[in-house]
Design brief:
Blueprint: H1 8-20, H2 25-38, H3 43-55, H4 59-72, H5 77-89, H6 95-106, H7 110-126, H8 131-141
Helix pairs in contact: 1-2, 2-3, 3-4, 3-5, 4-5, 5-6, 7-8
């Protein structure tokens, strides 16, 4: 069975597994774009797509995907962090507000907070010296 023949949920789970196994944006971006087209109201898919665009140094596309993710679900801390990263990469204002909102949301659930922080660490492993992530980490852990 090809990935496009899978349900969007199963395709998403497999794509996440591939990401966690170390696969990069060059092969995962087309897959996540397809999943986003199949599930246009899924904030998590759009947040992942934004993240991959950031890793692939495509700030304008990252910004659009992150903005869509936050619009779909304004209470998604990872989406807020990705939006803040995309805003920084595109030299937009309002970054601090997004980080503060993410921080407030993270304060309600330690597991989600740890997941966001782990994702930022993963970003630094995949893209060392990513100054924007280092900046966001400082704000979130201050």
């Amino acid at each position: 069975m090809t990935e496009s023949a899978l349900s969007p949920e199963l395709a998403f789970n497999q794509a996440i597994e591939r990401y966690n196994a170390g696969e990069g944006p060059e092969t995962l971006l087309p897959l996540f774009k397809e999943i986003a087209e199949q599930s246009p109201k899924n904030a998590t898919v759009w947040a992942c797509l934004a993240w991959l665009y950031l890793l692939d140094d495509k700030p304008p596309l990252a910004f659009k995907a992150a903005q869509k993710s936050v619009k779909i679900d304004g209470y998604h801390p990872q989406a807020r962090v990705n939006y803040a990263l995309a805003m920084l990469a595109n030299k937009r204002s309002g970054v601090r507000e997004q980080v503060e909102l993410a921080s407030q949301m993270m304060s309600f659930d330690q597991e989600i907070a740890q997941s966001v922080l782990d994702n930022l660490e993963d970003g630094l492993k995949r893209k060392p010296d990513w100054k924007d992530i280092e900046r966001i980490q400082k704000w979130l852990t201050a």
